[in-house]
Structures are given as structure tokens and as C-alpha cells.
Amino acid sequence: MRKILDPEKVKHLKGLLKRSTRIVLTCHVHPDGDAIGSTLGLWHLFRKLGKEAAVVVPDLLPKSLRFLPGAGEIAVYTRHDPYCTRLVDEADLIICCDFNTASRQDHLAPLIQGSTAPKVLIDHHENPDMECEVLFSFPKISSTCELVFRVIAALGYYEEVDKECATCILCGLITDTQNFTVNCPDPEIYEVLMKLLEKGADKTRIIDECVKACSYDGLRLKSFALSERMTVYPSHRAIITYLSKEDLSRFHYEKGDTEGLVNMPLNIRGIVYSIFVREDADQIKISARSRYDFPVSKICEDLFGGGGHIQAAGGEFKGSLEECLSILKDSLGRYDSFLPSRIERIDWRND
Ligand code: 5GP
Ligand code: MN
Known about the structure:
CATH architecture of the largest domain: Alpha-Beta Complex
Shape: globular
Largest sheet: 6 strands, parallel
Order of helices and strands: HEHEEHEHEEHHHHHEEHEEHEEH
CATH class of the largest domain: Alpha Beta
Bound molecules: guanosine-5'-monophosphate, manganese (II) ion
Helix content: 25-40%
Structural class: alpha/beta
Number of strands: 12
Oligomer: single chain
Distance between the termini: 53 Å
Radius of gyration: 20 Å
Strand order of the largest sheet: 3-2-1-4-5-6
Number of domains: 2
């Protein structure tokens, strides 16, 4: 495997790890498989190394990730503020995974930023913007979990990776690449996959829980969104799908029920990008995905102060659903110049 990590940084991190006894691992709000997989994977390793480690997350994890070994030990800030505060106050090292800027931690940000403990950032988003002692930032890598695996190997702790640690790390690889369908052109990711499987990572369980599993209502909600709330914008090669508060409550929406929905319209031939807009209780959540390197991160940044990756991004909007949808529709034309010049016709009959 190519050695992509700067040996000086690896040495620095090893020194920090040797000196610390209480390590807090933390990630972004609305944690996904990569955020939980990377923090929890390192948590297993550090415990094996005899450290007192704790994963502290801004808010609750979705149902699909609760099967991960150790998930029950995670400290959730919105649930246990005093406990999380104590863990962060007592930490002598803080490792931040899968986010590039403090605001991605929402209400947890002031606590983490207020700590005087040295910070390490391990991430794969563009333009990291956080004070830290050691930074591993690789925007081209498949997932923070792949990066965590490489960091562990470079530190010389590969032998200490057990089945539980490997399962957590594989979870992020699988979820961020949508089960090895996007963002995985580098053949070395399959070498990482092989090594994790050799360690006994439970791939079947990850696929069952994170790729396949949904509830009866969740499946009906997605079907409803696709049949009733999806609009094609042919000249922009775009699709916008939305779900209103009323739509969500009609199908007894639970967190995680719309996971993967934004990807589905991209299956239509000739569609370049898909945007999903969900009217949550306190804000509008925007999720976007694209093909051909069309920069949905730019749309999310420009219109909603969000961001992410070129082909997978998101943002938040404080205002009404109608306002959000009209801003989006009115702005699509601004991004036509990013469309590929030659592209197949949309497989779509407009009637
Ligand atoms: P998702 O659509 O799954 O919520 O997020 C896709 C990607 O966009 C993730 O990499 C995530 O980090 C990023 N992302 C999602 N929501 C936001 C947001 O509100 N702000 C920023 N900066 N990035 C986001
Ligand atoms: Mn990620």
C-alpha cells in the first residue's frame, strides 16, 4: 500500500498518544456511518492500548448504526450534557473525525473548541479550517474510515486491530462509498477491505443494517417521495425531491427513514444531479448528490452555507419549505456551465 501519510505527523501523533491517558473522540452532528465508524473504531483500538477513551457525539445516532460494537457506550451531548462536559474537560487529547470546521459540531462546538487539550483532525472534506496540532486531511480518499485505517497501520498498531474495531472501520468504508459504488476508484481501497475482512469485520451485518434495513413506513415514505414529490428539470439535468412536514408525519417519519433517497433519482439515465429537501421540525435539510463530478458542494455552499464533497453535499436553511424550493429552482441555471458537454438524453417521458 502507498504510504500517503507524512511520517513526521505520524510520529507526532504517536508521541501525543503515548503521553495521553484520557482521549475523547468526536465527530459531526447527525453522525453517519463514517463519523461513527471512525471514532468508534479508534475507541476500540485505544481501549486495547490501555487508554481511557470516550466517544462524544453532538446528537443521537440513527437506528442503522446502533448495532455497531460499542455504540451503546457513546456519550450523546443532547442527552447527557454534564457527562459529555466532564469527559471533554478531563481529556488530555481530542481526536476529531470526519468534519472540517467547528460549526459542523453544532451545539457541541463550543465545548470541544473551549478545551485546552491538543487536538488531532482526521478528515476527508475539502479546506479544513480548525486549529489542531496534527492534521490528516485527504479530500480524495473514500472515507475518514479508510484514512483511520491507514493512520492505525502507520502508527504500527495494525496487530491491535480486532474484529470490533475492523467492523466499525468497514462500516464507514461501506456507507461513504454507497457499498463500493461511488468514490472508490483507487484500487487500494480493496486492499483495505481485504485486510478488514481478514480481521473478521462483520460485512454481512453492516450490509443488513446500513444498506438494506428500513421500516415499513420508511419504505412507503421513500416510494411516496419518488412518485409524488419528485420533479425533473430537464434543461439543468437535475431532479429536486422534497418532503413536507405533513408528508413526514403521514408516514410516521423517524430519523434515518429518508437515508439513501437522494441517490435514487441519479439512477435515471441522463440525470446529473439530485437534490432532496426535507422540512424538519426546526429547519429545512438539504442533501445533494451528483455524477460526472458536477459540484453539488458548490450549490450547497452558495445557497445554504453548507458544503461537503463535490458529489455528495448538504446544507441547512432557516425559512419556509416554499422559499427554499423557490431559491433552488431559480438558481439551477447558474450551475449549467458545470454540466458535462456530452451526455445521454434523459430517459424520461414528459406527460
Ligand atoms: P448528507 O446528504 O448525507 O447529509 O451529507 C452528505 C455530505 O455533505 C457529508 O459529507 C456531509 O459532511 C456534508 N454535509 C451535509 N450537511 C451539511 C451541512 O449542513 N453543512 C456542511 N458544511 N456539510 C454538510
Ligand atoms: Mn465521511
